[in-house]
């Protein structure tokens, strides 16, 4: 065995642990001869280099992340039996990843785009993920429209350029997008940093307590740094000077001990209220009024440790809204229901069937099941234990007390739309709440974004949605585009 004579240095090895004698010169046939295929260290190095990039995320490709903790500050255990919320003072380690949605991994951090707000809590009962955004709503409310929507945000297959015609054609034909479009085009469309934005679980979930009683719940993460946004001009300038501005800001803040924090609150709705609330509470294009369901403090989230390696942690971390723990269940939100499959499936494709074994994704409690084999299986693979269930060999069995809470359903199985087509009230309310200067910037941003659209009918159709939300809103956009209404 080769010994390292200098204890301050480590030996360079191949992936199999064999020492590398020369990492500066390829093995050749003579001083000027061709390279030999027997230089296995060279072959391994080049082959690994060719495979250093896993497929980037289709959405949320550009992002930054950090480790931290969640601490309970208010006892809500009478609403949920989830262990991480069980008592005041309980701390749960976690990892957060913030991201833009549409841009590639090399795109600028300051694009006008929603920001992903994905959280992984390493609880004693398994990993719990909240996979949300910095907005409480989204553009669509049915997963069947998601691939088409994302196609409009990506590059045109012929020109390989961003296509404003596709963006506004889709939005103008999808009036449910208006609420999120209004948020996106407002000041909130470009956060100053990842630290200076709120986060939201966006979807409706269900909490269930130890007695089997349930409530509907929405998550809110209120930044303790205060809200700060960028104007379009400043964002464009920063994109040219430092496209990694948000990534750098988060890293430097934590490195300097300025740990970002968020106050965590929830809205709770009795199950029965969902049947008669004035908006469909499971429609992710709508919000619950905080006058009807006030924010209730739950805890505090703090990020206090940077990743040691970006690829191993930020790039390989996988999130799914399907990663839940006892005491937390799903709602019939149609977009959420689609995400329960799509996110896990995306990671099985992107990182691999055993991505849950990577340190950043591994749960802190033992994993016991009958899943076996697959590429990159890095644990004992079940050893010689039982590999099927049911069995009489003492293998792990289900725990009925941890079944998801039941809920009543009714109706005919069919492909049907949501039963609420009011796409304008909340968008109009938001417009009317904005101060005069923010309204002006909203209009300017929309006009700038729609001006490149070549099809006049798309502009007219979209203006019709703005008019229905608020007459002044639509009139000002029309005037900015030079269209008479």
Automatic annotation (TrEMBL):
Gene3D superfamilies: Catalase core domain
Catalysed conversion reaction: 2 H2O2 = O2 + 2 H2O
Record keywords, A-Z: Heme, Hydrogen peroxide, Iron, Metal-binding, Oxidoreductase, Peroxidase
Pfam families: Catalase (PF00199), Catalase-rel (PF06628)
InterPro entries, alphabetized: Catalase, Catalase_3, Catalase_AS, Catalase_clade1/3, Catalase_core, Catalase_haem_BS, Catalase_immune_responsive, Catalase_sf
Active site residues according to the UniProt entry: 60, 133
Entry's Gene Ontology cellular component terms: cytoplasm
Required cofactor(s): heme
A GO term for molecular function: catalase activity
Binding site for heme: 343
Domain (Catalase core): residue spans on this chain: 13-397
Start and end residues of each stretch annotated as Disordered: 1-29, 374-403
GO BP: hydrogen peroxide catabolic process; response to hydrogen peroxide
Source domain of life: Bacteria
Biased amino acid composition, Polar residues: 1-28
Heme among keywords: yes
Enzyme Commission code(s) on record: 1.11.1.6
Family: Belongs to the catalase family.
Designated name of the protein: Catalase
Organism of this sequence: Carnobacterium divergens DSM 20623
């Amino acid at each position: 065995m080769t010994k390292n004579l200098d204890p301050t240095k480590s030996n360079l090895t191949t992936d199999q642990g064999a020492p590398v004698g020369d990492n500066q010169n390829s093995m050749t046939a003579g001083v000027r001869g061709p390279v030999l295929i027997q230089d296995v260290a060279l072959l391994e190095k080049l082959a690994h280099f060719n495979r250093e990039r896993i497929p980037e995320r289709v959405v949320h490709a550009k992002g930054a992340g950090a480790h931290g903790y969640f601490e309970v500050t208010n006892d809500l255990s009478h609403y949920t039996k989830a262990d991480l919320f069980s008592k005041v003072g309980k701390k749960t380690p976690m990892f957060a990843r913030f991201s833009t949605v549409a841009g590639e991994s090399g795109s600028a951090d300051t694009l006008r785009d929603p920001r992903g707000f994905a959280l992984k809590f390493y609880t004693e009962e398994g990993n719990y993920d909240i996979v949300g955004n910095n907005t409480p709503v989204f553009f669509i409310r049915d997963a069947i429209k998601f691939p088409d929507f994302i196609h409009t945000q990506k590059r045109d297959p012929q020109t390989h350029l961003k296509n404003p015609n596709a963006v506004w054609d889709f939005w103008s034909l999808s009036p449910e997008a208006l609420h999120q479009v209004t948020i996106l085009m407002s000041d909130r469309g470009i956060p100053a940093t990842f630290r200076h934005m709120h986060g939201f679980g966006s979807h409706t979930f269900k909490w269930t307590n130890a007695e089997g009683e349930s409530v509907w719940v929405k998550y809110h993460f209120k930044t303790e740094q205060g809200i700060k946004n960028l104007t379009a001009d400043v964002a464009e300038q920063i994109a040219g000077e430092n496209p990694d501005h948000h990534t750098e800001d988060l890293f430097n803040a934590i490195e300097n001990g300025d740990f970002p924090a968020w106050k965590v609150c929830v809205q709770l709705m009795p199950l029965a209220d969902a049947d008669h609330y004035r908006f469909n509470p499971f429609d992710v294009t709508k919000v619950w009024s905080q006058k009807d369901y006030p924010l209730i403090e739950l805890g505090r989230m703090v990020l206090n440790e940077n990743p040691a390696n970006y690829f191993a942690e930020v790039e390989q971390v996988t999130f799914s809204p399907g990663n839940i723990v006892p005491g937390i269940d799903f709602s019939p939100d149609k977009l959420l229901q689609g995400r329960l499959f799509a996110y896990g499936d995306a990671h099985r494709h992107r990182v691999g069937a055993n991505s849950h074994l990577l340190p950043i994704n591994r749960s802190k409690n033992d994993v016991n099941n009958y899943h076996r084999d697959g590429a990159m299986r890095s644990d004992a693979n079940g050893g010689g234990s039982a590999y099927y269930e049911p069995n009489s060999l003492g293998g792990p069995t289900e725990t009925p007390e941890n079944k998801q809470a039941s809920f009543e359903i009714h109706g005919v199985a069919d492909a049907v739309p949501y039963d609420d087509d009011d796409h304008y009230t909340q968008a109009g309310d938001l417009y009317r709440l904005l101060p005069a200067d923010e309204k002006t910037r909203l209009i300017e941003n929309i006009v700038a974004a729609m001006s490149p659209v070549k099809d006049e009918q798309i502009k007219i159709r979209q203006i019709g949605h703005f008019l229905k939300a608020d007459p002044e809103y639509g009139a000002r956009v029309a005037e900015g585009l030079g269209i008479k209404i």
